[in-house]
Structures are given as C-alpha cells and as structure tokens.
Amino acid sequence: MKKTRASAYVVCIKNNEYEASLERRKIYRVLEDAVAERRGLVRVVDESRESYLYPEDHFLPIKLERPLLKAFAHAA
Asked: Longest C-alpha distance within the chain, in Å?
C-alpha cells in the first residue's frame, strides 16, 4: 500500500486475528514506515496515540482532499 500525504489515513476492512485491537470500518492515521511496507505491513495509530503494525490487506487507503486532510490532522 503506497502511502502519500493524500492517503495518510486508512479504513480497517477486516480484523481477523486482531479483534481486540482493530475495529472494522474505523479510520486510522498511518505513519510512514518503509521497512514495514516492504514486509507487507502498515503502521497505524490507535486511540491511545500509540502506533502498531498490522497486515496491509486489513486496510484500504482513504484519499482526502487537502482541506479535509488538514481537518483530520488537527482533530488527531
């Protein structure tokens, strides 16, 4: 999953094996992590503001226009 500033957020589409950690249909902020990406993982920030690695196929990127991206960044 190639991440850019326009896709700094993802939506969880499945939580197999991570039911206690991931919520389906929840939006998560993504942190760039080249090593994780090469391994098929994505680093997401949860409500505790901690980041964790999960399989990238558990998420879909959300493309946000610049004003909405700024609004999300200020809300986080």
From this structure: 35
Q: Write down all domains in the chain, each with its CATH number in brackets.
A: 5-75 (2.30.30)
**Helices H, strands E: what count in the chain?**
2, 5
Which pTM value belongs to this model? 0.80
The pLDDT profile of the chain, 76 residues, written as one tens digit per residue, is 654 444 589 999 999 999 999 999 999 999 999 999 999 999 999 889 999 999 999 999 988 788 887 787 776 6
| Strand ordering across the sheet containing 59-62 | 51-55, 41-45, 27-31, 9-12, 59-62
